[in-house]
Fold this protein.
Amino acid sequence: MRKLKGRVMKQQNKIACDILNEIFNVSIGKAADMLSQILHKTIRLRVPNVILLSGKERLSRKNKDSSLKLPDGTLMVSTISFSDALEGKANLVFPADKMHDFIYLCTGEQPVSFPNQSDFTDIDFDIINEIGNIVLNSIIGEMGNSLGITLSYSLPEVQIYNQSIDFSHDIESEECKSVLMLSVSFTIEQTEIKGTIFIDLTSASSEELFHLLSRIEGEFFG
Amino acid sequence: MDNNYFAVMDNLNQGILILNANYKITYANMMFSKIVKTESPDLLDRSILAVLPGFNTNYLRNAFSAALHKNYHFFFSAVLHQEIIPGKAKFNIRISNLSDVGEPYLLLEFQDVTSEYERIAQLKSNIKQLCLLNHELIDKEKQIQRLAYYDTLTGIANRTLFYELAKKMAQTSKRKDEMFCLMFIDIDRFKCINDTYGHEVGDQVLKCAANIFTNSVRKSDIVARYGGDEFLILLPDIKKEENCKIVISKIKSAKTKTVTCHGHEIPLSFSIGVSFYPKDGSNIDQLIVTADHSMYRVKNQSRKNTPEDSWPVADWQTEKDCLNKGPHELQT
């Protein structure tokens, strides 16, 4: 009986992730369009897959399961909080060492080689702040639109996380029990940069999200 | 709004603008007036797109709409949106919804980041200069290392580097029970060349000799200038003593074995003494002494066989002849 329940849960999660993947790919397309206009460059954004992490599945740098492994090295994280119908945080995460190339692609200005790869200027932070803002607004906003709910958003903030300040602790705080993990691929002109979006939800919001998704699923299958 | 609020807003160090749903200005603080160089009363009820035409782009109009109707907050950085506000000053812009006050309004905040940008530009310039200095220092360090370990005239290893490498080679050969060969080479009649044609030509002869030796050995072999017109070659991991003949043969058959001076071609010839580890010595100094002695025997033999007035024609002897004279005495 427990096995059957587990299988049903897995199937439900898969359908939920498929629906979310559709929603996120529409929203990420809008973000790409806006970024292309801002940067006057062709930008393509893709969300190849969505994974729902919950219960014992933990994110860590040491996780043997590669799908749950955080990238090595310093991370640059752009975050917005959202509340009202759903409550949580959305984080766009990039390996910091890739961000100098990313910023160069955005500005066209030759980067200065800092002694430390994780050193950034305020201007660099502003760029990541803006891009994170556009991507996360689109992702969360489209989710709200598709689910027919109203959300309030905060302004974004950018932080650097290294080995000593562990990002996984931040996104798996006590009140946030479920995490949606989205792989995201940025292609600016010919260069591809891969990042990850983590949407951490409170337990209540996670349940509410599944409830809303099952409604969509019901409408879809009649 | 209460007059006190207006006073506070006017004292803020950032431009504040409130727009209604039609994007018309309903409030502008003192700082914003300064930014657009227009008095506040003259801004009221004007469209933001008329006051700052830089906002009139598709994506910014979409951002206004999304902020107004979907509660999105937007951040636009000065570096990516320099065209919004004309002039040299740089502003980060934040757009949010003021839905708490009843009717929907948009709040625009303009944060002056000009001085930060200037500081960062200065910092970048300093870093670039430091990087250049650092490269220069690295180059100097390499140059010092070259001076310490390489012969400045010929570019090959000097005596110091030779000893360091030779000691390591001896240790490796001992551990692996391998044989290696040491050649002691002297340029024949070098003093005479120097006295006749001058030191400049003598230097050319040394460079030419170094080139010949370097081109005659394997990559793993070591060619060094021992001092004056004396050179050393180390041939590691050789299986038979006869194998060194290949190198000698290459030195002998080198195509560019002449130095030209004022229309004269000066042919070069070398006397070579050879010793083998471990047979002729258990350390480098012993091997050098043995090879040096055998080289002198070759040279003396050669002088006896060559009339003094035949100089500068080279006095070649075949490897076979040389090997017949003694086990390790060769002349090319």
Observations:
- The first strand of chain B starts at residue 15 and ends at 19.
